[in-house]
Write a structure and sequence with these properties.
Blueprint: H1 3-24, H2 26-44, H3 46-52, E1 57-64, E2 83-90, E3 98-100, E4 103-109, H4 116-121, H5 123-130, E5 134-138, E6 144-150, E7 169-175, E8 180-184, E9 190-194, H6 201-212, E10 218-222, E11 237-241, H7 244-268, E12 285-289, H8 292-296, H9 304-324, E13 326-332, H10 341-349, E14 352-355, H11 361-368, H12 373-380, E15 389-393, E16 399-404, H13 409-418, H14 426-430, H15 440-445
Bound molecules: adenosine-5'-diphosphate and magnesium ion (MG).
Adenosine-5'-diphosphate (ADP) binds at residues 195, 197-203, 387-388, 403-404, 406.
Domain FtsK: 178-365
GO molecular function: ATP binding; DNA binding
InterPro entries: FtsK/SpoIIIE/SftA, FtsK_dom, P-loop_NTPase
């Protein structure tokens, strides 16, 4: 065999080996091969990329040449002196890129006059220049920005649903950063979950049901679309309202329950049920609402009164539920103010926000509120092919792209039946209710 054919065989074997490595164990391939190459090329191309993306600034620099009279590299200026002042493009200083699970992260020093917003505006251009799926910008402190590049969309495929052993804390999916997406009702008590039909709202509710079913909590459902969504889960639900009349009764019960729990807390000198001794602590209740708008929509004038009462009761639950262990998870296609003033007030109480794919920009704005405008852009860019992808805000004031684990109705139904024995009966929960609405004004002031 000639030398050339040996070499080409070695090269082919190396390429095949690398390809197989990448395919079978991407994480180790990325850290040991992909990342070092990427880090070097990102650093090497940074001047060009920064220039192309409009992130450079002109600065005056002294320029020195050994050959006066030569033509400068631009070809335009004839250099007359050895030293002269020239304007050069300076790029923001870049630290060494660090590997992350799905890409890399790098810290930059902003140049004078730049804000993190300038980098956010350039994020899409940066992503294209680097050939990555997305670049996210954050600013840990003034003068620094961190660019987080994800090579491929990590949300195209998410793994399986893990168990959630901690009380009221369910890992429902995965964030774009690779971290788990956790809904923790004890940190963020009330949630809004918006999205068009087929965007993955019910899937997320299923994930919550599966996660919470084995825990010592009571689940309550409001499903005014005739109960089609939640009736299959009724073995694990302590109460289910499928009509307006039922939902009013159930909401009244919840309000009375809060008043009662408030009395218990006051007697024990506790501010909330978690400060009570375990023997006295009432069971936490998670309230799932399938289509929020149904609670507010009026078929005819005669319902006006009922709707006003529903709206007030729901708002009270939201205002006081946190301290007394009643948590809301409201799903809806629209959460707009067109549903009435009650919705706006309710929205203000729900600090957890989830926005799945939406059809109109208003819903995204309503759901995500005054988050950073790029969050709204991201929400509107969620493709229909990836149901379950959502923009999530809550826990830490930041927003993330995330995707829920796929949880079929059958899985949720199975969990509901398996843990049916853990569902406290509603009669048991509401037994010995003594509180009346008269205590409420005092409560609301507290
Ligand atoms: N995270 C996910 N991963 C994969 N498929 C999903 C996911 N979430 C939802 N789906 C699929 O998308 C479809 C619509 O989801 P669904 O939760 O019923 O939407 P919605 O309640 O918003 O109308 C379902 O068929 C479901 O199987
Ligand atoms: Mg649905």
């Amino acid at each position: 065999m000639s030398d050339a054919s040996v070499w080409s065989a070695v090269l082919a074997a190396t390429a095949a080996g690398l390809w197989a490595w990448r395919r079978w164990h991407y994480p180790s391939f990325w850290y040991l091969v992909g990342y070092p190459i990427t880090a070097v090329s990102v650093r090497a191309s940074w001047r060009r990329v920064a220039l192309g993306c409009g992130l450079t600034k002109k600065r005056q620099r002294w320029w020195f040449t050994t050959v006066p009279g030569a033509i400068a590299s631009t070809g335009i200026v004839r250099v007359k002196r050895r030293f002269q002042r020239v304007a050069v493009d300076t790029k923001p200083f870049m630290w060494l890129p660090l590997p992350t699970r799905y890409g890399w992260r790098v810290t930059l020093h902003t140049l004078e006059g730049q804000t993190p917003g300038d980098y956010a505006d350039a994020a899409e251009r940066l992503a294209h220049s680097w050939g990555v799926h997305a670049v996210r910008v954050s600013s840990p402190r003034p003068g620094r920005v961190v660019l987080q590049a994800t090579i491929r969309d990590p949300l195209v495929k998410v793994d399986h649903f893990p168990p959630s052993p901690e009380l009221l804390r369910v890992t429902v999916g995965r964030l774009e950063t690779g971290k788990p997406w956790i809904i923790d009702f004890r940190t963020v008590p009330h949630w809004l979950n918006a999205g068009a039909t087929q965007s993955g709202k019910s899937n997320l509710a299923n994930a919550l049901i599966v996660g919470l079913a084995p825990q010592p909590v009571a689940l309550v459902g409001f499903d005014l679309k005739g109960g089609v969504e939640f009736t299959p889960y009724s073995p694990r639900l302590s109460a289910l309202a499928t009509s307006r009349a039922e939902s009013l009764t159930l909401l009244d019960d919840l309000v009375a329950l809060m008043v009662d729990r408030m009395g218990v807390c006051r007697q024990a000198g506790a501010r909330n049920i978690w400060q009570l001794p375990p023997a006295l602590r009432p069971v936490p209740i998670v309230v799932l609402v399938d289509e929020l708008a149904e609670l507010y929509l009026m078929a005819d004038k005669s319902e006006k009164d009922e709707i006003a009462r529903t709206s007030t009761a729901l708002l009270r639950v939201a205002q006081l539920g946190r301290a007394f262990g009643i948590y809301l998870f409201c799903c809806g296609q629209r959460i707009g103010s067109d549903l009435g003033p009650g919705v706006t007030a309710l929205r203000a109480q729900c600090s957890g926000r989830i926005c799945h794919r939406v059809n109109d920009p208003e819903t995204a704005t309503m759901t995500l509120g005054d988050l950073d405008p790029t969050a709204l852009v991201s929400a509107r860019a969620i493709p229909a092919e990836t149901p379950g992808v959502a923009i999530v805000a809550g826990q830490d004031g930041q927003w993330y792209r995330a995707r829920s684990f796929y949880v079929s109705e059958a899985t949720a139904e199975h969990a509901a039946r398996t843990y049916a024995h853990l569902a406290p009966s509603w009669d048991e929960i509401t037994a010995h209710l003594t509180g009346t609405d008269a205590d409420l004004p005092e409560l609301l002031d507290a």
